[in-house]
Amino acid sequence: MRTVLSERGQVVIPKDIRELLGLKKGTVLDVTVQDKKVILKPLATSVKVKHWQELRGLLKGKYTSKQFLKEREKDRKLEQWK
Questions:
Q1: Which CA distances in Å does 62 have to 46, 49, 52?
Q2: 59 in Cβ contact with 65 (< 8 Å)
């Protein structure tokens, strides 16, 4: 399959591939380069976000940046085992 890079640097992942991988709007992708290839990997996230407004105030209160970093590290470890 082929896709085209837009003027703004955006790429559309074909619908067949999105469905195969279960990618939905808002899925966070890790982007890396390896041997002149762009690799996109979906990241496991524990927070489902429909709109950016839902993130406002997320880190207020008892949820500290240290806890957030711990969760992110746990997500990264889970991704390595997939």
A1: 17, 20, 21
A2: yes
- Rounded to whole angstroms, how far apart are CA atoms 61 and 64? 7
Output the CA–CA distances (angstroms, integers) from residue 79 to 45, 55, 76, in the order listed. 10, 23, 5
pLDDT in tens, 43-69: 865 455 555 555 566 555 555 667 777
Question: How many structural domains are present in the chain?
Answer: 2
CA dihedral of 13, 16, 17, 19, whole degrees rounded to 10: 110
In this prediction the pTM is 0.48
Question: By residue range, what is the domain housing residue 14?
Answer: 1-42
DSSP letter, residue 37: E
In terms of domains, do 54 and 28 share one? no
> What average pLDDT does range 16-42 have in this prediction?
89
Residue 17 in this model has a pLDDT that exceeds 70: yes
